[in-house]
Amino acid sequence: LIGRLMFELPEEMGLIAIAVRQTQGKGRGGNVWLSPMGCALSTLHITIPLHSNLGQRIPFIQHLVSLAVVKSVRSIPGYEDIDLRVKWPNDIYYSDLMKIGGVLVNSTLIETTFHILIGFGINVNNSNPTICINDLITKFNKEEGTKLKPLTADCLIARTVTVLERLIDIFQEKGPNGVLSCYYKYWVHSGKQVRLHNEEGPIAWIVGIDDYGFLQVHEEGKGVESVHPDGNSFDMLRNLIVPK
Question: In whole angstroms, how far apart are CA 5 and each of 42, 112, 146, 242?
Fold first, then answer.
């Protein structure tokens, strides 16, 4: 629907489609995305000028969206310590334990404008197939004696889009350095040691992400190098970066 409409609208007009449930959800690399009732599911259309800070670093958009999802919860007064985090390049996690959402970005360049379709899905009120944000809130209330209210999918989609708009403005003004300190605050990888290629592969430490959004790892004796998300996958459970 949005793919047909997005080229017909004035550039300053935003467009979003929201689903209560998906029957043919898609993930990265052709993976199927399960979308039961209780998820926040949407596709957002935005335009980014090619000759802008973000237009020259388009891979960064998935990081900004992932950060916006996390901040949509953790910027609510009282909800700052709900342990929702970003996993490079495009997943939302509960701590470093379990996936709770994901982001998929497609871009089309028409003349000097990128048309970006951002799909994001977050488990909000569905305990299956993994865990959801309201489960984390319930757990937090029990442990801390608080009475935080459960959140709704509509609220989180609205907050995510609002936060994303602000993050894009900051990025366009200041570049990667305008958002990276906030991104690192919420990501799961700080100081993590990983193995490259397989369980017996060389040891490396995750340093951060570079100016184009690629993961930087420091391999012993070799210095820092960037890892491209389309050429590698990150196995959180085994702390492995594996070539696809």
Answer: 15, 19, 45, 38
Digit-coded pLDDT (tens) for 152-168: 999 999 999 999 999 99
Global pTM? Answer: 0.89
DSSP result, 6-63: TTTS-TT--EEEEES--SSEE-GGG-EE---TTEEEEEEEEEEESSSTTTT-TTHHHH
For residue 84, the enclosing domain spans 1-185
Judgement on whether residues 67 and 7 belong to the same structural domain of the protein: yes
Question: What sections of the chain are H helices per DSSP?
Answer: 2-5, 60-74, 133-144, 153-174, 180-186
Report residues of the chain scoring pLDDT below 70: 25-34, 228-244
Q: How far apart are CA 67 and CA 160, in angstroms?
A: 9
Shared-domain flag, residues 234 and 177: no
| Residues counted in the chain | 244
**Could you tell me if 176 and 220 lie in one domain?**
no
121 and 142 inside one domain = yes
Helix axes 153-174 and 60-74, enclosed angle (nearest 10) = 130
- Is the separation of the CB atoms in 85 and 95 below 8 Å? yes
Question: Which two structure tokens, joined as six digits, stand for 158?
Answer: 């609205």
Residues 108 and 175 in one domain: yes
